[in-house]
Write a structure and sequence with these properties.
This protein is α+β, with helices and mostly antiparallel strands and 404 residues long. Helices cover 35% and strands 13% of the residues.
Length: 404
């Protein structure tokens, strides 16, 4: 439902700062439901201030166009990180455990968020997955994309039969449209932990209908079926987080984090952000260099333009060799690689906004894997792309997802 741009915030005396501008697609801006969802995301994002949640700088509406300006994260999604570093085995598992401690800290903060009068907002992220956890090149985790988060003050309402999120990371109550709370996010973290322990996707080989059926009967894959001797403490934590009944799970993200920190404390060689950042920087050095070169190229082009220009002006197109920046060496989404759009027009201009002190100059519409900020609202997008299995009950109907 949105396009994400990498942009430069320009200030006096040559000051510039890379930011991310998320814009509601034009075809959705006139739709009251999508506009409400985007405004809800913007309202919630503006309230979130936590070191492990992507920071929102500004929210704007101009001529029925909605924008959210966020921090630029230089790093990789956890999904890409673990596929690239899979050779590390147990070392990668423990790094992911530390990352999940930071994610749980961010979730607990969001879950505990209150309105200005102290009223609990009852935020539930609803889309916690490895795609929405960015690992910076410093080794720190950032939770992104609150686009389908539910809060008490949300103005948008989910239609009956529409399930928002990724089925592969959903708690049973979320998959079947039942009332849910923070424990649904705990379940999603449990799935990520399960995958960290086993080194595989939890629902690999299962079609959506099969996943829905197994969730409905509480048939959660067992770690011991895939790993002969998993760490007992880690296994117990994971099984509690994945309890089919919400009341049997951890009551909060903080409680799960406390147990995971206890596991880390028991390790002789403890994972650190510095070590993970070094591994990540080495593993993605080529991609990071290409992205840096692309950014520098576009910044030079922008500096060459008149800073007072207000009309759109075309920048040189990315040549064929640079197109590989979009998938970053990963398998493209089923809808194909994300497009790369370049423009020198100011997305937010003082003349239109009534005196905004900065000017956002768009560098390019670069995919999530490049800029580390979410571009879509996910509607039923599991990892598994296996065709539906015959005889398995289908999950509730869902709207198709825009490509990430």
């Amino acid at each position: 439902m949105a396009v994400v741009y990498l942009a430069a915030s320009q200030g006096p005396r040559g000051f510039s700062k890379l930011v991310v501008v998320k814009e509601l697609k034009e075809e959705f801006s006139q739709d009251a439901e999508f506009a409400s969802m985007f405004v809800d995301e913007a309202r919630l994002a503006a309230r979130l201030a936590h070191p492990h949640i992507v920071q929102t700088y500004e929210v704007e509406e101009q001529l029925n166009h909605f924008f959210i300006v966020m921090e630029y994260l230089e790093g990789q999604p956890l999904s890409h990180t673990r596929s690239r570093l899979a050779r590390l085995g147990g070392q990668l598992r423990d790094h992911q455990v530390r990352v999940l401690c930071e994610v749980l800290d961010a979730l607990h903060y969001a879950h505990e968020l209150t309105d200005y009068d102290g009223t609990r907002l009852s935020v539930v992220h609803r889309d916690v997955s490895p795609h929405n956890v960015i690992i910076t090149y410093g080794g720190e985790a950032k939770l992104v994309d609150f686009g389908i988060a539910k809060a008490a003050d949300s103005t948008s309402q989910t239609r009956t039969g529409v399930i928002k999120g990724k089925l592969a990371y959903m708690a049973p109550e979320q998959a079947f449209g039942k009332p849910l709370d923070r424990r649904a996010d705990v379940f999603a973290v449990g799935v990520i932990l399960w995958e960290a322990i086993t080194g595989r996707r939890m629902w690999k080989g299962n079609a959506e209908g099969a996943i829905a059926h197994r969730l409905s009967i509480g048939d959660i894959p067992k770690i011991s079926d895939f790993v002969a001797d998993p760490p007992p403490m880690l296994k117990a934590i994971c099984e509690r987080a994945l309890a089919p009944q919400a009341e049997q799970r951890y009551p909060s993200a903080a409680a799960m984090r406390q147990d995971l920190e206890g596991y880390i404390a028991s390790l002789v060689q403890k994972p650190s952000a510095r070590d993970l950042g070094g591994l990540l920087s080495a593993a993605f050095a080529e991609e990071r260099g290409r992205i840096g070169a692309l950014v520098e190229e576009q910044m030079r082009a922008l500096r060459a333009e008149s800073p007072e220009a207000s009309s759109p002006q075309e920048l040189p197109r990315i040549n064929a060799a640079m197109q590989s920046l979009t998938p970053l060496g990963t398998t493209p989404s089923r809808s194909g690689p994300a497009s790369v759009r370049l423009s020198a027009s100011s997305t937010v201009h003082p003349a239109q906004s009534g005196g905004i002190p900065v000017r956002w100059l768009v560098l390019g519409g670069i995919a999530l894997v490049v800029i580390g900020a979410a571009a879509t609202t996910a509607i039923m997008q599991p990892w598994s792309q296996t065709p539906a299995a015959g005889g398995a009950p289908a999950p509730p109907s869902a709207s198709p997802d825009a490509s990430r």
